[in-house]
Amino acid sequence: MPRAQRVHFFGAVYHVIARGNNQEDIFKGQSDKRYYLNLLQKYKKKYPYSLYAYVLMDNHVHLLISVMEDPLSKIMQGVQQSYTQYFNNRYSHLGHIFQQRYKAILCNNDSYLITLMRYIHQNPVRAGISNGLDYHWSSHKAYLRGDDNLVETDFVFNMLSSDREVALQQYLEIMSNGDVQKSELVDGYITYETDQKPNHNTTIMSNITISQLLDTVAQETGIEQDRILSEKGKRAIVYARNLFIYSAIKKGVATKTELASFLGISLPSVIKGYNLIQQHQK
């Protein structure tokens, strides 16, 4: 049976898990992990994506990735094949080092994204590694320093608060909440890929749909719906789009990740638009 393609749309967020073949180690030393991180950086430039969290354990990898124009499969193919070549050459190994196809779990909920980040950063704790959260090969340290050029910490911080110090405190509280339970995680992964986006005409937490809200914002601002959805640059249109984003989130019509896919923009752009209107409202 041929493999089904994975879901792909601009702004889709995935929890990626790549394990060693037969649970064998894929990293034999720190230099191997450093090389893998360099590959993530290399392919981030080639196929732009956003990385929100990672951890490199000896026999597996966890990544929290948001894709843009290029599908996840292209990114992971480049990273995994390049690392396999490196590993085989260095250790005179033949064949696959990764366990068949990586798993990719689609994340379409803001709170679940935070849960996944917590789960990923707590992997060393669950493994009984002595330095736990301070494990060197995890993106947790990037959130503490805020100066990492591989991980987009601003996106998660902005989800928590527009005030950086408050966001950092909230992040630390989240990370101190203990281990993520299996019941909090999605079991399995999405295996269908089309260019179709999720259906946003269903009511989520509100009594109006996202399409109805778009119509309301269009009437209030005098900007046509198509222009709110597609045009860029003009201040009035940017304001209308940001107002739509802010209203959808505040009214519980859609999450930030759902808005990113609906509008065809990145998650950081959604967060930025929301924050701009929120600051204007104060």
TrEMBL record:
InterPro entries for the chain: DnaA_C (IPR013159), Transposase_17 (IPR002686), Transposase_17_sf (IPR036515), Trp_repressor/repl_initiator (IPR010921)
Signal peptide, first to last residue: none
Domain Transposase IS200-like intervals: 9-123
GO MF annotation terms: ATP binding; sequence-specific DNA binding; transposase activity
GO biological process, one term: DNA transposition
SMART domains xrefs: Bac_DnaA_C, Y1_Tnp
A matching Pfam family: Y1_Tnp
Domain Chromosomal replication initiator DnaA C-terminal: 209-277
Cross-referenced SUPFAM superfamilies: Transposase IS200-like, TrpR-like
PANTHER family found in the cross-reference section: TRANSPOSASE IS200-LIKE DOMAIN-CONTAINING PROTEIN, TRANSPOSASE, Y1_TNP DOMAIN-CONTAINING
Protein name: Transposase IS200-like domain-containing protein
Organism annotation: bioreactor metagenome
